Amino acid sequence: MNPGYLVLHPLATSHAPPAERLIDSLRELGLVGEQDGDTGGRYRPGNAYLRLITYLGCSPSIPLADNPQEESCHLRLLGPYPAPTLISGSNSRPPRCPHCGHPFTRWQEWLQHGHDSPCHQCGARRQLERLQWREQAAVARLFLLISHVFPGEAVPVERLMHTLHREGGDWRYAYVQQPRRWCAGKGFSML
Ligand SMILES: [Zn+2]
């Protein structure tokens, strides 16, 4: 079973870096290996994968060998999307207002039906990309998902962040379990 994904994404939500060039750079670095299966945008880990992603547990079990597709560690590139997009998970907690920190408990209702209301505490208008998701969801136009990472279990090393920065400015990361992509006013689809 896949315990979750490490989700890397550009901080900027106004645009996405060119996907093909990004994959070429990550392949050259050794993070991304061969394409996995017939579905585009899915890759096996490259030969430097374990030098670019640090696992924090004492004996992590990383299924890198040739397991059936769904049971092996893989990377997925999602996007670019025409608008800032939210990927959340079953582990996502209510995001917080960027101005006063008040939790936005009805966020799923807002995203499903488009019923917006200002922050109950400070009155600020809500914007998807400005809410604080605290590494439990991500908003961007392009995402790199790495499977078989339990929340908090693995982090990207500086060298990887440096390469990502060269391709699209600052990047951030989050952890999601059972990821879903939201389409404002229309609900979500499982990924
Ligand atoms: Zn507020």
Which features would summarize this protein structure in a list?
191 residues, single chain, binds zinc ion, alpha+beta, four-stranded antiparallel β-sheet
Radius of gyration: 17 Å
State which percent range the strand residues make up: 25-35%
Task: Characterize the overall form.
Answer: globular
Attached small molecules: zinc ion
Largest sheet: 6 strands, antiparallel
Unreliable spans: none
Secondary structure tally, helices: 4
| H-E order | EHEEHEEEHEEEHEEE
Mean pLDDT: 91
The structure class reads alpha+beta
Query: Can you list the strand order of the major beta sheet?
Result: 2-3-5-8-1-10
Number of strand elements: 12
End-to-end Cα distance, whole Å, is 15 Å
Helicity level: 10-25%
Characterization of this structure:
With 191 residues, the protein is α+β, with helices and mostly antiparallel strands. The chain has a domain at 5-81 and 139-183. 17% of the residues lie in helices and 26% in strands. It has four helices and twelve strands. Strands 2-3-5-8-1-10 form a six-stranded antiparallel sheet. A four-stranded antiparallel sheet has the order 7-6-11-12. It has a two-stranded antiparallel sheet with strand order 4-9. β2 (32-35) and β3 (42-45) form a beta hairpin. 29% of the residues are buried. The mean pLDDT is 91. Bound molecules: zinc ion.
